[in-house]
Design a protein that fits this description.
It is a single chain. The chain is mainly β. It is built from four helices and 51 strands. A five-stranded antiparallel sheet has the order 29-28-31-26-33, with helices on one face. Strands 1-24-23-22 form a four-stranded antiparallel sheet. Strand 36 and strand 37 form a beta hairpin. The longest helix has 8 residues. It is elongated, with a radius of gyration of 32 Å. The protein starts with 6 loop residues before the first strand and ends with a strand.
Length: 578
């Protein structure tokens, strides 16, 4: 008997997506399939290419599905129309188009040839008979009541499945000259289905089968020596594609009902055994503390941790700077690395049961910290929280910061903007409340020179925010006020100098006049033409040295200052106190 096949396993997840059915891959480990949102009943197709996740929905369809992905990013599959009939669909240059096999009532596409561009799948004609096709070739196994075709190799070999006259499923390999080789599972009886999906240049195949009262299972190997492949700790495993290097791609279901993609890489037995350990994890709804129980074959990041756990936020302690850093699913990057021996705060909206797969930690400190998760949920308040969002209005936000303040507790967090994204994280490791429902969170954007560059936002924390440990904020029109405004001088009272901030909604000539209590002008500050923007910092605000037009220091008392533009005028009060 040929030796057993050995693999390492990696999950493929997209944060915020609990149902990710990976059904296709390219030779560059890009992926395609279908997904379903948390509150959606409809499936939509997706591609995950170079780490970029995009979804596709054929207009007016009941569901859209990809089952093939070319090395050039072209994808194919099928969609269900409003009458429940299937039609082929092809993604090319970012656009979906319909494809029907000639004379077909229904068309389902499962394969796409990189070498010839041929589509492979099955169709149903007007008489209700199902046949396979590859390119223009109709594939029909003699004596079969139905024939499915799934994939064509560069040599013209086609793999698929057929149903015999007694309703029993068999897989097959069809040579380029039309000869069929039947493939059956050893000791398999009472099958609901058996589909053969992929074939590589080494003539290794992958397929799926399901027996009555059983879960779907995956089989891989040579046609005459199929072995079961199971993602460790999974409820069920469905492999859909086999790459030229022998790796298998598909999806698995975890115990909590979520669906994850996976890639199983063919490796020596020693490596497979090393990374083949399983650690089952239960996270309860709300905030949890978690350390990685095992080392994964590929380095884990905040993004991959959020994907496998289903977390809405991931928070780490930056020990060097003694501050918390956060990551959320709408971040434009993978976030910080997840290391062994470190604890992380994550928030999950529902109970999670899943398995980590990997190798034992070799460092004793890492092993000691690799503890199960600890749930620390508290109703109506949270001991960890993230305020995150995006900035709009400029091409670059280098050097920008966001300042977040809880008006009830007066606690303040300052965080840098990365790209156009920011995440301000706070936590109390003693698990004391840092935010409650009804708290008002103040947020503002500060430019590189310390100038305020946005309207100050005040947002009330809702129960939903608390459930996700996340408040999402959007700053638009950065550096472009919606209206002219004269702001309070600072310091006030002052002696001997002060700064007068203001904002302009459009380019204007600006002057500021200082009046005494009798309305007499004692000083005029001719600022000149100014571009639209915020003039708040000491570098940008108007400056008054407390002297009149003659250069004499004015006496203590109440004065008034007035901002004037061709279309706007506003007056405020200031106090000199000597």
């Amino acid at each position: 008997m040929p030796p057993a096949l050995n693999y390492t396993f990696e999950s493929i997840d997209v944060p915020g997506v609990d149902f990710l059915a990976v059904t296709a891959s390219s030779d560059f480990f890009d992926y395609a399939g279908n997904m379903r949102g948390t509150n959606d009943e409809k499936d939509v197709a997706f591609t995950l290419i170079n780490g970029v996740f995009k979804t596709y929905d054929f207009p007016d369809s009941q569901g859209t599905y990809f089952y093939a992905l070319g090395n050039d990013g072209k994808a194919a599959g099928h969609y269900k129309d409003s009458d429940g009939l299937y039609h082929g669909v092809i993604l090319e240059n970012g656009e979906l188009r319909r494809y029907d096999f000639p004379g077909a009532v229904q068309t389902e596409i499962y394969g796409l040839s990189d070498s010839t561009g041929a589509l492979t799948g099955s169709f149903v004609d007007a008489s209700g008979v199902r046949r396979g096709f590859s390119g223009d070739t109709i594939v029909e196994r003699p004596g079969a009541s139905a024939t499915y075709a799934d994939f064509v190799s560069w040599t013209g070999n086609i793999v698929g499945s057929y149903v015999d006259a007694e309703g029993i499923y068999h897989a097959y390999m069809r040579s380029s000259v039309g000869r069929f080789l039947s493939i059956d599972l050893p000791n398999a009886t009472n099958l609901e289905y058996f589909f053969l999906h992929g074939l590589n240049n080494a003539r290794a195949v992958v397929g799926r089968a399901k027996a009555m009262d059983d879960v779907p299972r995956t089989y891989v190997g040579s046609p005459l020596n199929l072995q079961e492949l199971q993602f460790p700790g999974a409820v069920s495993t469905e492999g859909w594609n086999i790459n030229q290097d022998g790796s298998v791609v598909g999806h698995y279901d975890s115990a909590d009902g979520r669906r994850h993609g996976f890639v199983a890489r063919l490796v020596p037995k020693e490596e497979s055994d090393h990374f083949g350990n399983i650690f089952n994890v239960t996270l309860t709804k709300g905030l949890n503390m978690l350390s990685l129980p095992l080392a994964s074959p590929q380095p884990m990041t905040a993004k991959s941790l959020a994907g496998i756990t289903g977390a809405t936020v991931v928070i780490a302690l930056d020990a060097e700077n003694q501050r918390f850093i956060g990551w959320t699913p709408d971040a434009p990057n993978d976030g910080f690395p997840i290391d062994g021996g470190q604890g992380y705060i994550i928030n999950v909206p529902q109970t999670r049961n899943f398995a980590f797969v990997g190798a034992p930690w070799t460092d004793q400190a890492e092993e000691a910290a690799a503890a199960p998760a600890i749930s620390l949920e508290t109703p109506n308040e949270a001991w960890a929280f993230v305020v995150s969002g995006h900035l709009e209005g400029k091409t670059s936000f280098d050097g920008y910061k966001v300042i977040v303040r809880n008006l009830r507790t007066n606690s303040t967090i300052t965080t840098s903007v990365q790209g156009d994204y920011f995440a301000a994280a706070t936590a109390d490791l003693a698990r004391r409340s840092v935010v409650k429902v009804g708290d008002v969170i103040e947020a503002r954007v500060i430019g590189p020179d310390g100038n305020v560059e946005s309207k100050t936002l005040n947002i009330k924390v809702t129960p939903e925010n608390l459930a996700n440990a996340l408040l999402s904020v959007k700053f638009d029109s950065i550096g472009k006020p919606l209206q002219n405004k004269l702001l309070q001088n600072y310091p006030n009272p002052f002696n001997p100098e002060t700064w007068i901030p203001y904002q302009l909604a459009k380019d204007s000539s600006v002057s500021i006049s200082i009046y005494d209590s009798t309305a007499k002008v004692i000083r005029k500050l001719s600022i000149g033409n100014q571009s639209a923007g915020f003039y708040n910092s000491r570098e940008r605000a108007a400056y008054w040295d407390g002297k009149n037009a003659l250069g004499e220091s004015v006496a203590s008392g109440v004065y008034f200052y007035q901002l004037t533009t061709p279309s706007f005028q506003q007056t405020r009060r200031l106090v000199i106190l000597k």
